[in-house]
Every structure is written in structure tokens, then in C-alpha cells.
Amino acid sequence: MELKIKPNKILMWLSYNCLFFSIMLKMLYQTNQNSTIRLLGFGMQAIVLLCYFLEELITLKRKSINCITLILGILVVYQCVITILNDSIYLPYTPIDIFIWPLSVIVYYNFTCHNEMNKNTENKTLIYYFIMCLISVFLIKIHLAGNGNIGQVVFLTYYCLTALPLVVIFVKGKNSRNLCILLCVAISVASTKRTGTIALILGIFVMLVLDAHIQGSLKEKWKRYMYLFIAICIGSGAVLYLENRSGLEIFDRFSKLSTDGGSGRDVIWAITLQAFNVSNLREKIWGHGFQSVYYRLRPGGFSRFSHNSYIEYLYDYGIIGLSLLVLFVLFLIIIEIKFIREKNKYAPVMGMLLIITIFLSAFSYFFEESNIIQPIAVAYGIILGQAYKERKRYEN
């Protein structure tokens, strides 16, 4: 019997594993600042990017192009052109940040339109997620002790949030899936990251409500709503316990939202928008180039992003770049509305993805670099591809 090895499946297996390896290495780097670990992390991302290019070349003749993949393809080409014209290439960041997250959506969409993910994906995803949660504990400990680059250290705990939808997609066991959700809530609360905590709680709420909505019988719906109520009670009790016992000052951090401007985000936004307003017409339309806010504008005298992907894209890639990004998000929302109307089984996790996307892109750095967005992009590609494949199967 001849054993047939499909190159595209090997490439997807390798890219999926290297994606998580790169994430874990980035998180580990913040625990000891070892430059070797950092280089290995970039190496894993380079392998992911190489796998994507090879996968696209292998399957060039049977692409399943839709509005999402078309917009992302145009966005990637546009960013490359603007980056070259503005001489804003910074290696290794430029190719990684421009290509990886859009290609993650495109490649996984094209692959899952015609193939199934590897049978061991569930176990691997679960193991990787537990490792990420374990590393997050050390990152939070460093953060609370006030050591190292405090903001960047705890920022990487967001990976537990953005990888959670992949756990929901692949992990079939309810107990294992619920344990991952509880771990994510605990990590998010302990990290004192307000944006992430709000996105997670609201995302879980939307997922549970939509899950109840797509259930067939009224009895099942009420059962789901009961689980939702119990989950809210347990979650509220856990937050109160942590607030009283651990000294994390969770509620104190939230109460300062109206006075600290989101840790100074309002000031950064104002500086970036003012710089855009005084730019010439060409720069307003086409932008200033790859991550120009970080490398050239440097709001407040520091190299940092705008903490809002839409303001960042407006300055970096102009009105055209921002329009393409907004169009991509709008199409995702339209697809989710269609899922909800059809009571598609992917509606709940898609709802969670959108909540996370909207919050992190509005109050953090999300689309402008292929960092915490990576697992989210993979999840979008898988959901869209599998939904397309099942729709075609149903039609036939």
C-alpha cells in the first residue's frame, strides 16, 4: 500500500506548531530577557511565513477567493508598496508584521475549504494553551513585583485571551474547554489589564448567549441561560474574592478609567491625530509608512504605538489603508450577522472573536503588528473556511 504524503498538510502542521512555539518563546523571553530565546521566537515566525508562502504556491490553482481574502490581499500589497516608497523597512519586523496575520486568515481559509485540520490538533492546542497559562503566571508575578519592562511583560498574557477561541474551536471536551476559560479569566483579572478583562468577560457572555440562541428547543435554551447565569455568579464571586484577598486593586483600576485617560491613551491619540492633521495631502491619503507612529512620530518622546489600530493605520497607511482595514472588519461583522440568522454553529465563537477584535483594536495595538493577533487570525481563517466547506457540502 502506497503512503501518500501531502505537502500542503505537512506545511500546515508545521506552521500551526511553529505559531505556538513562537508565542511561547516570546512569552519566555520576557521572563529572563535571554536574546537567544528572542531570536528563536523570530525564527519560528520566519518558518510560519515560509510555510504560508509555500502553501500558497502549492495550492495556487484551486484558491477559494471571497471578499475577505481579496481585501486582505489588497491590504498586504498596499502596505508593501507604501512601506517601500516611504523607506520604512525595519528588519525583521516589517515582513513579519505586514504578512503573517493577513496570510494566516487567507492560508487557513484556503486550506480548510478543502481539507480537515490534523487529528491531533485538539490535543496540541490544549497542551500549548496550558503551557501559555503557566508562563503567564510567571509574567504576572514579575509584573506585580515591579521588575523588568512592566507593561510589555504583562501585555503578553493577552496571548491567553487571543488563543482561547482556538481552544473553543478544537477542544471537544466540555470540562477541558471550561477549565481553559476559567484559567483565562483568572489570568486576565490577575494581570489587571482592563481592556483584556472587559473583552474576555463580554466575549464569553456573547458566546454563551449565541450558543443558547442556536439551540433547537426552548428547554435547551433555558438550560443554556441557566448556565450563563451561574457562570456570571461564579465569575463575580471570583473577582470579589481576588479583590479582597490579593490586593490586586481590580476595581480601583476600573474606577480610574474616567480620570487616567486609559493609562494615557487619550494623550497618545491626540498627538497622533494632530500629526495626521498637519500632514500634507499625499501623506493623508497614502500614509507615512510602516509603523511610522512607533519609529518616527514617537508620541510623547517614546517609541510606542497609538494603542488604537484605526488611528495607527490612519497615520501609517493613510485614508486608503484605514478604509481597507475597516472594510475587512465590516465584512467580518456582516458574516457574523449571517451566521446568527442561519443559526450557524460557528456563530458563538465568531461572536467572541469579534468582541476581542473590536476591543483590542480600539484600545491596544492589534492589527499593526503580527503579535497577539496571530491566534485570532488563524481562528478567523479556520471558521470561514470550514463554514464555506460545509455550505458547499450542504448545497451538493
Automatic annotation (TrEMBL):
Record's keyword annotation contains Transmembrane helix: yes
Cited Pfam families: Wzy_C (PF04932)
InterPro entries (UniProt xref): O-antigen_ligase-rel_domated, WaaL-like
Bilayer topology annotation: Multi-pass membrane protein
Subcellular location: Membrane
Keyword terms: Ligase, Membrane, Transmembrane, Transmembrane helix
Key word Transmembrane present: yes
Coarse class of the protein's main subcellular location: membrane
TM spans (from-to): 12-29, 35-54, 66-86, 98-114, 126-144, 150-171, 176-192, 198-218, 225-242, 314-334, 346-366, 372-388
Annotated O-antigen ligase-related domain residues: 180-326
GO MF entries: ligase activity
Protein name: O-antigen ligase family protein
